[in-house]
Fold:
Amino acid sequence: MTVIRFKALEKSLERKPVYSKPPSNKTSDYFGMNVFDKPTMQRYLAKEAYEHVMDAIEKGGRIERRMADQIAAGMETWATERGVTHYTHWFHPLTEGTAEKHDAFIVPGDYGGVFENFSGKALSQQEPDASSFPSGGLRNTFEARGYTAWDPSSPAFIIGNTLSIPTIFVSYTGEALDHKTPLLKALNAVDKAATDVCQFFDKNITKVQANLGWEQEYFLIDEALYSARPDLSLTDRTLMGHSSAKDQQLDDHYFGSIPERVTAFMQALEIEAYKLGIPLKTRHNEVAPNQYEVAPMFEECNLAVDHNMLVMDIMKRIARQHNFQVIFHEKPFKGINGTGKHNNWSLSTNTGVVLHSPGKNPKSNLQFLTFTVNTIKAVHDHADLLRASIASASNAHRLGANEAPPAIISVFLGSEVSKMLDQLEEQVTNRKMTPDEKTALKLDIGRIPELLLDNTDRNRTSPFAFTGNRFEFRAVGGSANCSSPMLVLNAAMAAQLIEFKKDVDKLVDKGVKKDEAIFQVLRDYIKASKAIRFEGNNYSEDWEKEAAKRGLTNVKDVPDSLEAYLSDKSKKLFKDLGIFSEKELEGRTEVRFENYTMKIQIESRVLGDLAINHIVPVAIEYQNILMENVSKQKSIFSEADLNDMVGNRIDTIKEISTHISSIKEKVGKMIEARKKANAIEDPVEKAKAYNKKVYPFLDDIRYHIDKLELVVDDNLWPLPKYRELLFTR
Ligand code: ADP
Ligand code: MG
Structure:
């Protein structure tokens, strides 16, 4: 019998790159061809219907039923012209992926035939029988069944022969059952709060949008090799595998030339993404072998989140067409870099100003400082919640685990902005400033942009870094839905800006001039949030000590981190902004705890299985070969010769025995620990038990398997090794 690993290797070596042809050589010719975007709507809708949709997008209003019929008819015409036969409401349930249920565009006709029909009702609302999605106990009753409703702010698109309509997913009693509903509420809240603050600076600002530019890292693994690894196929990470003699130590993969098979995959991905109006801009090799990155230009946050989910989806599909599997897991391979998804975030106005970008004069710079200081304060006040927003079983391998980022949330500003804030803190006083002081301050503030220009200092170790015109939240995991961190960040910012406006207004009411009031409040915030600012190396041990002194939290365990969602502070934040009721928050947090438990449970089962059914038998087989060899030698050679000759083979036989015994013993103990944890009812306590009692066995058992991999005959080893998985030719 050939070892499955060799068949897989053979297959992978035979692969050739598969190139795709774009609809046109010029991207702009076909960019967005599969999106029902504004220009398309203009062509397919009557003026009244078009304006109605635009209004709903701008103001977040509802679509009237009569209009919905018209819009649906236009959409159907457009879609059927492109060979579409089905439609689906596309939504983001509280699982990691997206969900869809396809229905044909047909209704029964009078004489047994069918009408092609897509009604306004079918466009606006659907009731998927989706009762199996996690809801944290929110949907136990019949009344609370869920329905999906169109989100006109994200345009409909075509994939294959299906028209996909982005929707929210809520219960009849109004509770959110998805990621999108609360995100839209947070985006609304930050729009309103930021617009109010902008009124201090420019009366023409009537709308502020949050932007998101994500950078998606991923691994590509040959599909045959991936399939020969049950751990990868079932858990998206390798639960065993000795490191390859060569992996990333030479840094020869980072920005290196891209293997042809991978280039062909990337091209196909870009073509599909462009058809869907997703502005992919960058592609390159990452640090680890077989690791890559793709990033679009930034977009409005809700759309960017949809596009990220969509791109992840397309990547999986296209990867298979190219005989690859794409992996978004945060740590698929031990010992080499993991996978993150930097979230580049900023606020910008309807007047075209990026509020996190320094301006051209003292006034616009004061506006920049206002938004920057408020961002720092928001992160300072809600650091625990931000950490919770990115905490998951898979991201735990990055967060606080010897790799970017640490489990301490801090903000990096760069020396120039830091200096500026230090000056503000010192110069601003509570008394009325003299004209000279004011001029000096304004001059200082006016100097920011030129200083930033030649000051592109970057700190790659910071979880939340200012990078010139935006903040980059780097702690987000590769497999995450960006909704969670974006929801928290925008909500925290909204609450912070509301507080800022109140504080300034209070001083103004007391007769302080507006400019001075802004300075004074900013100074107070700079002082209050100072602890969160850190310019040094976030990976160093010194920082852990220093952070502890500053009173910053350092929470490494996922269940502990998730508890931040349930603190009074978080409950108040979400309630005040109308994003979550307490019940909703508790429900969805429960889902996060359960998800953690299930992830560890699955990993533990898979590892137990593999260890006992794949590894131990092979180790015994090899041990038998060695024993036979020793005993045959004994029948040939004299006692005196033998000692030297077989001594080290006997050591190996013993070593194999020790590892086999340890594996068996530890797998047994792990199963016991699982049983105990499974008996716990409370989801929080259960997750904690899995974290503390079950999880440690994974590395423990792996240690022995990885040792065996080094001793056992390569011809017998059943699973593709790291060196085979990681070097695509
Ligand atoms: P890096 O140097 O970190 O790789 P890039 O220049 O490739 O950064 O940009 C990363 C992402 O940040 C891209 O999606 C880009 O569009 C986005 N980005 C740039 N400016 C902003 C901004 N003001 N707000 C939000 N995202 C931005
Ligand atoms: Mg970046």
Notes: Residues 211, 213, 215, 282, 295-298, 344-346, 354, 469-470 surround adenosine-5'-diphosphate (ligand 1) (CB under 6 Å).
